[in-house]
Amino acid sequence: MKILITGAAGFIGSQLAYRFWKRGEEVVILDNFSYGHMDNLEFPDKSFADEILRMDIRDKAGIESLLKNGDVDYVYNIAGVAPLPDCQIDPAEAVDNNVTGFVNVLEMSRRYGVKKVIQASTNAMYENETVFPTVETSFRQPTLIYPNTKYCAERFAQSFCDTYGMNVTCMRFANVYGPHIDCLRKQPPFVAYMIRELYYGRTPIFHSDGNQRRDYIYVDDLIDLAIKVREGQGFDAVNCSSNVNYSVNEMYDIAQELMGKQIPQQYASDAHYWEKYPGLYEGAYPIREEILSHEINKYSLCDNSHAKEAYGWEPKVSMRDGLQAVIEHECALLSRL
């Protein structure tokens, strides 16, 4: 079994590579290091540092060179621009990576007989949904740049399946957390941010009132599903979610208890949510405040019955156990900086 993983120096891609290696599968890994970190490639019993290829999925010749022998069975396309504000501040770059880059992967996979492509998609496509839990087959089209790039990518995946008989599964990730989550990013994911602030003894700044609820999935549970979806034929889109959601305040309470800290959180105005990206507030048409408010306060809860019924999968890791694992890893990382 030979597997190509793009975006392999990132949080999810590196975890995939490690699990597949532990299963005895041959992995070929690449990353352009726009967001990846070498630290993610280091595990207690394995280092991928000397194996990672510095390559971009938009590099047609490069991707072709990895697939042209026809011996790659599966491609996991995890590469892309994921932070929402990064996509808003440079939409052309986001589209180039998340859509054009993915289409390049699809085309080379078509030419050289890859059995299946598994695409990292997102539950952010459900940002305008009002019916919960959200199912894969019915939702309102998204507004922001990032979910729109993933929505477009899925449409191209469907096209390749319908036109050429390829097999592609788009995994719509809920909010993924676990060891190696990026706490060093300019605007880190919420889980990474709150752990980082608690580690340094700083007061975390949350937006709105902290009662907004999101659906989370632990990275090991995600990988379990990523393995199982290899069995599917044709095109499929599947929610990768816990079907349980937590508020910001609930998760912060758990993290404080696990870390033995008591630091009251503060709350900031929705209008300053992406203040580290001043370009979004400038120009003839600055970002609308109601868009920021909607993003902060949106409610997410994804139905995972399709994953259970089609692939026999269900999540196993509790929020408490998952956060404990993240805390141990992130605190060890921060102690080395």
What does this structure look like?
This protein is α/β, with parallel strands linked by helices and 337 residues long. The protein has a domain at 2-177 and 216-242 and 304-317: Rossmann fold. Helix content is 39%, strand content 17%. The strands form four sheets. It has a seven-stranded parallel β-sheet, sandwiched between helices. Strands 9-11-13 form a three-stranded mixed β-sheet. β3 (42-43) and β4 form a beta hairpin. α4 packs parallel to α5. The radius of gyration is 19 Å and the shape is globular. The mean pLDDT is 96.
Instruction: Provide the succession of SSEs.
Output: EHEEEEHEHHEHEEHEEHEEHEHHH
Q: What's the CATH H-level homologous superfamily of the domain at 2-177 and 216-242 and 304-317?
A: NAD(P)-binding Rossmann-like Domain
- Spatial ordering of strands, largest sheet: 5-2-1-6-7-8-12
Q: What would CATH call the class of the domain at 2-177 and 216-242 and 304-317?
A: Alpha Beta
Low-confidence stretches: none
Report the CATH topology name of the domain at 2-177 and 216-242 and 304-317. Answer: Rossmann fold
Largest sheet: 7 strands, parallel
| Main structural class | alpha/beta
In whole angstroms, how far apart are the ends?
Answer: 37 Å
Overall mean pLDDT: 96
Tally the beta strands: 14
Q: CATH architecture of the domain at 2-177 and 216-242 and 304-317, please? A: 3-Layer(aba) Sandwich
Total helical elements: 11
Shape: globular
CA radius of gyration is 19 Å
Strand content: 15-25%
Q: Helicity range of the residues?
A: 25-40%
